[in-house]
Design brief:
The protein is built from 2 helices and 5 strands; from the N terminus they run ααβββββ. It is of the alpha+beta class and 151 residues long. The chain has a 5-stranded mixed β-barrel with strand order 1-2-3-5-4. The longest helix is centred in the N-terminal third of the chain and has 19 residues, at 3-21. Mean pLDDT is 82; it is low at 28-34.
């Protein structure tokens, strides 16, 4: 094969690859969009809430987590990792803290917050960006979610 033929074949393969990638489903498009936006120390996940822990910290009454549940066990359906993020163990439930609670956001919980979240329930699927946090407190979740979208 000549150099021109090899070059032509490579171009043809690349064009075919781009064409096939553009024919993806809605869920795949969402994943591809998130892929390019994953900061270091984070992962983009699709997860399902398997258990919601009851409110356990009532020491700071200004903390929304003293009024609404913030910690849930999540089964990770899929994950795309940013740099320096440990991979999730396959088929295990992960304990995650939702910084804006698992309840629907309200002015009572977040008086100055403009963005709203619908809340999550057991069995519900969602998409989120998860941050890995190293805690001194070994009982605290190592993963945190700031925002999510319901699927």
């Amino acid at each position: 094969m000549t150099v021109k033929e090899l070059f032509f074949i490579r171009i043809l393969v690349m064009l075919l690859s781009f064409t096939l990638m553009s024919c993806s489903s809605t869920k795949e498009e969402k994943t591809v969009k998130i892929l390019s936006e994953i900061p270091p120390g984070n992962a983009s996940i699709v997860g399902i809430i398997t258990r919601i822990e009851p409110v356990s910290d009532s020491s700071n009454i200004n903390d929304p987590c003293s009024k609404a549940p913030c910690i849930a066990l999540v089964k990770i359906s899929s994950a795309v990792y940013g740099a320096a993020f440990p991979s999730f163990p396959k088929d295990e439930e992960i304990r995650i803290k939702f910084l804006f609670t698992l309840e629907k956001t309200t002015k009572e919980l977040f008086p100055n917050m403009e963005e709203t979240y619908p809340g999550l329930k057991v069995g519900q699927e969602f998409t989120a960006l998860v941050a890995h946090i190293e805690n001194i407190d070994k009982t605290a979740p190592k993963f945190q979610i700031h925002s999510y979208e319901t699927n």
